Amino acid sequence: MSSRSYFQSRGLSQDAAKAEALLYRYPNISEEELASLIRTFSHFPLLDFGLLAADERLGAKLDAFYADHAEKLRPPLTLIEWMIGIGAVVGLLVLIYNALG
């Protein structure tokens, strides 16, 4: 007889649970709460975002929140992304220099 183990989600993190509570009240939240919600969403782990996005009760609120604040919700570039970008630019400049010279 074999046993099977299945991955069970740990549920929402503490930050995601706070964000969920604020989203239920959105757009009727204070400026401080809005700033906290934006800060939280810009650094959300994918699992937390997925769990919130899958909640049908939050659908309209989440859509409205993203429509109103999408430009502020993009995560900041990480060091790795900056290094890849700079490397790509330097590589392109070397190729252009070699092609012209």
A few lines on this structure:
The chain is an all-alpha fold and 101 residues long. The protein has helices at 14-25, 31-41, 46-53, 59-69, 79-100.
Structure notes:
With 101 residues, the chain is mostly helical. The chain has a domain at 14-75. The chain is built from 5 helices and no strands. The longest helix is centred in the last third of the chain and has 22 residues, at 79-100. It is elongated. The mean pLDDT is 85.
Keywords:
101 residues, mainly alpha, 5 helices, 63% helix, 0% strand, elongated
CA-CA gap between termini: 71 Å
Q: List the helices and strands in order.
A: HHHHH
Number of DSSP helices? 5
> SS-based structural class?
mainly alpha
- Low-pLDDT runs of 5+ residues are none
Sheet with the most strands, sense and barrel status: none
Would you report the number of β strands?
0
Average pLDDT figure: 85
Compute the gyration radius: what is it?
Answer: 21 Å
Helix content: 55-70%
Relative strand content:
under 5%
Backbone shape: elongated
Topology of this structure?
Blueprint: H1 14-25, H2 31-41, H3 46-53, H4 59-69, H5 79-100
